């Protein structure tokens, strides 16, 4: 049976319209995916043979993403600095391990990006943890930290002891909000009686920080020996209450890395780092 020309025209127009709507939907979907593409600022890219990492712009900030949910001994956790990819954390009470997954360009310069498990405290503090890095091939400057901060702002005053994936360890502090980090490095080769030119990557087994008044001191155990102070304390005043806890940063602005901190000791008194 022959179909009237009028009906054919209607069906053809309908097919054209449906095709146009389908193509439009595909275009909008591709556009949305493009809009959601993670854009990493040039300053946030890690240092390499062809790129030198520089401080972020003075006026650049991102708010923390915070979950007020207890995890182990801590009362909450935050993505300080709002890293481009959200972090996560878990606690295994059987092994006493905190597994922290985080992206973040750095914990350095005038602002930080890292996953932070924290508790608000006042007075003196002793804090220590074993540290391990599950991915042996992770970026060398990724860092696990024990840290005391004035606030959850990305440019907060703070004092921390950090252990890097490449073995570097230091006491670092931001003297005032929005200022550059200062540091005291640990000479690990001297602690282990190794030649200065030895290229072996050595990770301390355990790191700690003590707050006694306005004095902050780095503690370390290289191989399981009793923890002991290293170097001179730094002076930093924090108003009570402040934030105390552990954290990790992949040093990759949009790539998740993992650090494990375990057997955490947290005491509201000095002299208990162990």
Name the shape in a single word.
Answer: globular
> Beta-strand percentage?
35-45%
The parts where pLDDT drops under 50 for at least 5 residues are 8-13, 15-34
Could you state the order of secondary-structure elements as H and E?
Answer: HEEEEEEEEEEEEHEEEEE
Rg of Cα set = 25 Å
Alpha carbon gap, first and last residue:
93 Å
**Given this structure, which CATH class of the largest domain is correct?**
Mainly Beta
What do the pLDDT scores average to?
A: 90
Number of strands: 17
Describe, in plain words, how this protein is organized in 3D.
- It is a single chain.
- This protein is mainly beta.
- It folds into two domains: 1-37; 50-267, Jelly Rolls (Sandwich), CATH 2.60.120.
- The protein contains two helices and 17 strands.
- The protein has helices at 5-35, 188-191; strands spanning 65-67, 76-80, 88-92, 97-104, 107-108, 111-112, 114-121, 125-132, 143-149, 158-164, 169-174, 182-185, 206-212, 215-221, 228-235, 242-249, 252-267.
- The strands form three sheets. An eight-stranded antiparallel sheet has the order 1-2-7-16-9-10-11-12, with no helix packed on it. A seven-stranded antiparallel sheet has the order 3-4-17-8-13-14-15, with no helix packed on it.
- Strand 14 and strand 15 (228-235) form a beta hairpin.
- The chain is globular.
């Amino acid at each position: 049976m022959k179909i009237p020309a009028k009906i054919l025209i209607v069906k053809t127009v309908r097919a054209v319209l449906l095709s146009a709507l389908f193509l439009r939907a595909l275009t909008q979907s591709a556009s949305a995916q493009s809009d959601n593409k993670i854009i990493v600022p040039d300053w946030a890219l890690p240092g390499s043979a062809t790129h030198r990492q520089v401080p972020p712009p003075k006026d650049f900030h991102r708010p923390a993403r915070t979950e007020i949910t207890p995890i182990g001994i801590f009362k909450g956790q935050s993505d300080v600095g709002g890293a481009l990819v959200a972090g996560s954390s878990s606690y295994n009470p059987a092994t006493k391990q905190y597994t922290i997954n985080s992206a973040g360009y750095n914990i350095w310069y005038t602002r930080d990006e890292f996953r932070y498990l924290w508790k608000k405290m006042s007075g003196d503090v002793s804090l220590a943890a074993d540290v391990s890095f599950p991915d042996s091939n992770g970026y060398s400057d990724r860092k696990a930290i024990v840290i005391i901060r004035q606030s959850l702002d990305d440019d907060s005053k703070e004092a921390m002891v950090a252990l890097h994936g490449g073995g570097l360890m230091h006491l670092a502090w931001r003297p005032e909000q929005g200022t550059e980090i200062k540091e005291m490095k640990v000479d690990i080769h001297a602690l282990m009686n190794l030649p200065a030119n030895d290229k072996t990557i050595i990770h301390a087994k355990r790191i700690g920080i003590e707050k006694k008044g306005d004095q902050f001191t780095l503690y370390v155990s290289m191989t399981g020996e009793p923890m002991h102070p290293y170097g001179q304390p730094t002076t930093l005043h924090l108003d009570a209450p402040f934030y105390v806890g552990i954290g990790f940063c992949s040093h990759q602005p949009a790539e998740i890395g993992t650090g494990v901190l375990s057997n955490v000791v947290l005491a509201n008194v000095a002299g208990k780092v162990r």
